[in-house]
């Protein structure tokens, strides 16, 4: 568990971060979102003491980070940034192995870990292990950057706009990969983004920053349905709000008994997918299946009712 306790950073007269408190549960992703200059990066960099707090503290599993030497702390906390920051003259394997090598892991264990991570990121180790960063696509470099940050199984992974440089399609894929890998490894991640859509997609919790202050810290569904301030409401965007909400809810949540015509949606599909299917086929309901068996249907009326009922 990461406890951020009244964390503050002042630069002269500017309060870049103003008494921010929040608790991040282990094994979750927290997305920190806000406009440019709202203090996101400064908040993140105080967690691994790349910036020293002016006041307040961070506790990781109960221990104040102020009691740990910064270089030791940074070995325990992974850090991935936009543009990945790979060492250009090191192979992919050496890049990923950077922290395990510092920690003097045995050679076999390092090699096994590098291959495991490459596999996890869908990059064949035999093909990629000995390449240099310049021989990789932008998306592949970004994956190696995240793999490097995860290599020593850190207590916490900090990510600052990790997907900022990627085009939209590769970016969506990278987001899905991160979610899948985070769930598999049970990692705890704090991620900075200026993109609310990305925050909603990735965050178990979303922290909205405005002018150095944390204005709301909540689940994506509650941020959408109960924005704490006008600023949060603007960030979410009124027009798209119902659609964003629908994309967070699986059809399994409102599936009703009985058949419906047409191609079935999997139970894990979102209500946004179900709405698209209804509109596309001109039907008022779509069947839902799980493991190849139809388990019921979702109707347009049920979707509408679910949007009107705010969680
Ligand atoms: N080293 C510094 N010296 C002086 N002011 C700084 C310094 N670093 C950041 N600031 C100021 O602190 C505020 C918050 O900056 P920060 O980089 O944390 O914002 P951000 O939300 O991450 O913005 P962006 O999305 O543009 O990266 C800004 O007003 C910035 O100008």
From TrEMBL:
Pfam families: ABC_tran
GO molecular function, one term: ATP binding
Keyword entries, A-Z: ATP-binding, Nucleotide-binding, Transport
InterPro entries to which the protein is assigned, alphabetical: AAA+_ATPase, ABC_transporter-like_ATP-bd, ABC_transporter-like_CS, P-loop_NTPase
ABC transporter domain residues: 2-236
Keyword Translocase: no
Keyword hit for Transport: yes
Family of the protein in this entry: Belongs to the ABC transporter superfamily.
Official protein name in the record: ABC transporter ATP-binding protein
Provenance organism: Roseinatronobacter alkalisoli
Classification lineage: Bacteria, Pseudomonadati, Pseudomonadota, Alphaproteobacteria, Rhodobacterales
